[in-house]
Specification:
The complex is a heterodimer of chains A (147) and B (155). With 147 residues, chain A is α/β, with parallel strands linked by helices. In chain A, 37% of the residues lie in helices and 15% in strands. Chain A has a single domain, classed as Rhodanese-like domain (Oxidized Rhodanese, domain 1, 3-Layer(aba) Sandwich), CATH 3.40.250. In chain A, the strands form two sheets. A five-stranded parallel sheet of chain A has the order 1-6-5-2-4. Chain A has a two-stranded antiparallel sheet with strand order 3-7. In chain A, strand 5 (98-102), helix 5 (110-120) and strand 6 (126-129) form a beta-alpha-beta unit. The chains are: A alpha/beta (147), B mainly alpha (155).
Chain lengths: 147, 155
Amino acid sequence: MLLLVAAALGFIYTAATEKGMFAHLPPVPPSQTGGLLAPAMISRDQAQAYYESGTAVFVDARHEFDFKLGHIRRAINIPLRMYETKKSILDAIPKNRLLIAYCDGAECNSSIELSVKLAKDGYTDVKIFFGGWSEWTASNLPTDKTP
Amino acid sequence: MKNLLSNPQLVLVSRVFIGLLFIVSSLDKIVDPSAFARAVVNYGLLPSWMPAIIATILPWVELLCGFAVLFGVLLRGSSLLLSTMLALFTLAVISALLRGLDISCGCFTQDPAAGHIGWMKVVQNTTLFVLTLFLYFSDTTKFSIIEYLQKSETA
């Protein structure tokens, strides 16, 4: 009985307060995407699931210096400001492959802007991991350093 | 041993300690279920769809069991639930330690910078496990809501 009541209270509370599994990720205002509709945001849990499934390519929008210090394992680096010169890295990746853009976390918007550029360049399945590097490392998920 | 299980003062102290402990430890998890889910994920023992469900239900189980133990209502059922949870937590911590994981416990605070798991946590959990088992086998209702209700019925 305690278990049933606890489960009911848990679901009612988290749904009513929109926390945990019922949390809504913040919508991206068009002002941050140059008026374009930004790709969907995913939570850390979803990012981890995509990472573990091996179906996604993580694209790090941060500066090369930060990327070398540490990044999501197997991620590629396309700093937002160097998009035009670095986007050739993506040439080998099919246009329908899932790309997940990320940057430092909630305080940065590079991932949003990068995802819009990727979508404009014809990538059909682009998502944004808005929690980014800070959420990933806070959860002790796999990372790499580039020497 | 029989004397200990029937000692109302000892049972009361154990009930207050365990009850308050689980009530307090549930609060941070209820306030931030996402952080608790991340702590569960870090143990790397469950499929990715489970931590969110556990983070939704388990803190409320802790809270309700905490109150039940504190007031001596459904004492056997709630202390059995708590001892089962503690046994599972302890096994999870041991498994993480054996795999060399350096993760935060997710026990009392969801701050990732808080203390990480260690063998001391195993000792701590085992002690709590013994205490909850003690409450399960205790056979006194003294200083409980049940005793209060029984007294008011006979009065």
